Each structure stands twice: as C-alpha cells, then as structure tokens.
Amino acid sequence: MNKIKITICIFLIFCFFGFSISYGEYVSIPTWSSGTMETAATDVSEGNFLGLECGSAILIEQNSGEILYEHNIHEQLRPASVTKVMTILLIMEEIDNGNLSYDDMIPCSERAASMGGSQIWLDTTEELSVSDMLKAICVVSANDCTVAMAEHIAGSEEAFVDRMNQRAKELGMNDTTFKNCHGIDEDGHVTSAYDISVMSRELLTKHPKITEYTTIWMDSLRNGESELVNTNKLIRNYSGATGLKTGSTSLALFNLSASATRDNMSLIAVVMRAPSTAVRFSEAKKLLDYGFSNYEYNEFSKGGEKFCNIEVQKGIDASVEVVYERDSGKIIKKGSQENIEKEIVLDEKIMAPIEKGQKVGEVRFSIGENEVETVNLIANNEVKKIGTWNMITFLYKEWFDLMR
Fold first, then answer.
1. Which H or E run contains 343?
2. Cα–Cα nearest to 193, from 264, 287, 260
3. What dihedral do alpha carbons 194, 199, 200, 203 form, nearest 10°?
4. Between the CA of residue 286 and those of 41, 58, 223, 238, what are the distances in Å?
5. Quick one: 340 and 359 in the same domain?
6. Alpha-carbon torsion 353, 356, 357, 362, what sign?
7. Which residues sit opposite 246 in a β-bridge?
C-alpha cells in the first residue's frame, strides 16, 4: 500500500514539474519561423500590443500628424513601390504650382518603355495625358508611367530623384534615401514607416484631389483597351478608405500606406515588411480599426466663428465682434470629452482704435492638467477711435436719428 502511495506521489510530482516546464517553453523559449528567431510575447514587451507581424508600422492622425501607434517606426527598410508616394507628391506640386496641367500630353522614352515590374506597357510612339498617367501610377503602380512623368518634369530620372531627396529633407524625412522614382530594389534605396507617414500626410492634406485617383477600384485607359484594377484591396473592402499606395518586391516583402476617413477623422496606417500580401492588408486594417475604435476628433473652434461681443472704450462703436482666429481640434480618447476644460483670457481694457484681425484675447483648451491647444481671439471688424471730427459726426447722426 505504501509503495502504491509513493508511486502516486512521484507521478503527481512529475506531472506538476512537467506542466511547469511545458508552460515555461510556451512563454519564453525561442521558436523559428521563416528563417528568423522570434520570441513569444516579445511584441508585447516592445509595446507592439496589437501583435503585428510586420517589420515596422505606424498609425497617425492625418491632419495633426499625431502618432497613435508605433512599432519600429524609424527602421530603414526597402519601400518598394510605396516610393511612388513621393513621386506623386512632386507631380501634384507641379500641377498646383501651375507648371503642369492634367491635360498635358506626356511622351514615353525608351528608358520609360523598358521598365520592368508593374506597368501598362507604354510605347515610345504614344502619349498619355497627365491625368491618365496619374491614374496608372495610383491604381496599378505603373513603373513606365512613373519614369515618363519624372523625365518630363525634371529632364531625367536622376534629376527627378534629386528633387525627391531634397523634398524628403525639407519634410524632415531623416531615415530616407531615394535612388529611383519607382521603388524597384536598389542598394541604399531606403525609408521608414515614419517617413512614409510624413510624405503620405503631406500628399493627402496639401493635395486632396489625389484621392480622386487613389480611390479608383476599377477603370480603363486607351479607350477601354487597358483595364485597371487597384492593387490596394482596401479600396474595395474597407469603409472610408481613401488610398494610398502598395509596394512589394522579393527583398522589400509587402508594404502599404493606407488611409481612411470616418466621422470627421482621417488616419494613415503604414505597414512595412509584412510576410505576405494578406498580412499587409490585415495589419493595416488592424491599425485603422484600432484608431477608429479608440479615438475621435474633438473640434475646439472654427476659424471665423463668433465667440462674443466685447465692450470697446473710446471707440465710435460701443463693442467689437470677437471670433476664433482659426480651426482647432484634438484627437482624444473616446469617452474623455468631459475632461476638456476651456480657459478664456481677454484683454482687461479694449481701447480703440482696433484693427480687423487684431488679437484681443485667447482661449486655452486643456485635458486634465495638460494644455493641448491655444487659439487666439481676434476682432472681426475695425473700430475707429473717437476724435473731434468723429465725435461731431457721431452726434450729428444721433441727433438726425432722433429727429426722424
């Protein structure tokens, strides 16, 4: 009997320690996947609480640029065709500066026609309008059209790439070096998730017309002879999607800059080095869903909206209308609106003369103890100081009104 009890105790002890060892392996022992060593729960320890599989990622609010989620955002990686975000930005700037028109016809050089990868098979004998070139670049990531546009704008692809790098420097894209305008793999051609979000934001906020091209799901060129289907599948299956650009090569793996707008809030999610195209889109959805589920845009003020009327001393008018100087708002956690406080600071004495647009005070918005926004209050009209002539005119007007 004692032998049986001893045997049972030994068995239970073995089971207990065996379970403990197995559990320990699950949480901490490295496993091998796709040739790389990964550790379970490593993502959580690095702050990647969404458990993303990609090499790097970022989620920002489009208007403010505020970062809502980040994962290895400054790691320099190959961007593939997401490179074309910068190319498109320079094209749109040329259009808005009046140096280029949507109707301008663009020729195709031997160099452009010889590009591999994604293309619409441009021929050196044909020309396409800038509008059709943009459509091909945004929808099917056409390398031939990209090079043709670069050559037309700058004279050569090399000169255009110089412009790309200069513009990147101006935007503070310190992780970026462009070697070409299309994104085909080339040593030293690198950027980061953060920098992609920066140029994506610049494109979408300064040139919103681009979404007329980036939201096309299916279209055609050459009088219907060339069918186009968007490489960005989110355009078809994600509510509010506005763009923006896909990219993939054997070395870069799968990249995406995805943008969407819902309920007066616009987000940009960047995914780099995803292991598959399916993961690229699912990671972007995960980021966007996180943003829309947890944050909202709270409007503080609208430029030109009336705030109040305040008394004016020694003015021909007794008061002046005060308005907010500009639009303002903040991305906040959902459910935290009640924590927003507003402090109004007005000049103690408003003395004429007052110029239209003159600052007369400010409103400070705070969330908890943190001041998040300050908006000037300005005069919406001019108020002249009462002088001798103004006083005579004023008294005459008052007398005339009484006699009527």
1. strand 340-346
2. 287
3. 160
4. 18, 11, 38, 11
5. yes
6. positive
7. 256
The alpha-helical segments, DSSP class H, found in 80-233 are 84-96, 110-113, 130-140, 143-154, 157-170, 193-206, 211-214
Name the domain boundary from 233, 264, 298.
298
The vertex-242 CA angle with 203 and 135, nearest 5°, equals: 70
C-alpha span between 291 and 328 (Å, rounded): 20
| C-alpha distance from residue 67 to each of 61, 150, 400 (Å) | 7, 32, 63
Per-residue pLDDT reduced to its tens digit, 108-152:
999 999 998 999 999 999 999 999 999 999 999 999 999 999 999
Peptide bond just before 107 cis, omega within 30 deg: no
**Domain region containing 127:** 54-298
Please state the φ and ψ torsions of residue 134, each to the nearest 5 degrees: -60, -40
Helices (H), 107-155: 110-113, 130-140, 143-154
Q: Are 183 and 189 in contact (CB under 8 A)?
A: yes
253 lies in the same domain as 342: no
Token code pair at residue 78: 């190959």
Report pLDDT digits (tens) over 7-39.
444 443 334 333 332 222 222 222 222 232 232
CATH code of the domain in which 124 resides: 3.40.710.10
Q: Are residue 272 and residue 309 in the same domain, yes or no?
A: no
Q: DSSP label at 82? A: G
User: Which one, of 189, 181, 187, lies nearest residue 89 by Cα?
Assistant: 181
The DSSP annotation for 30-48 comes to -EEETTEEE-TTHHHHTT-
Question: Could you give phi then psi for residue 282, rounded to 5 degrees?
Answer: -70, -35
Residues annotated as part of the active site: 81, 84, 141
Q: How many domains does the chain have?
A: 2
Burial group, residue 15, by CB count within 10 angstroms (0-12, 13-18, 19+): exposed
Mean pLDDT of 80-87: 98
Residue 315: strand pairing partners: 385
What is the CB neighbour count within 10 angstroms for residue 46? Answer: 10
| Residue 262 tokens, joined | 């819902």
Pull the structure tokens for residue 295.
Answer: 């944050």
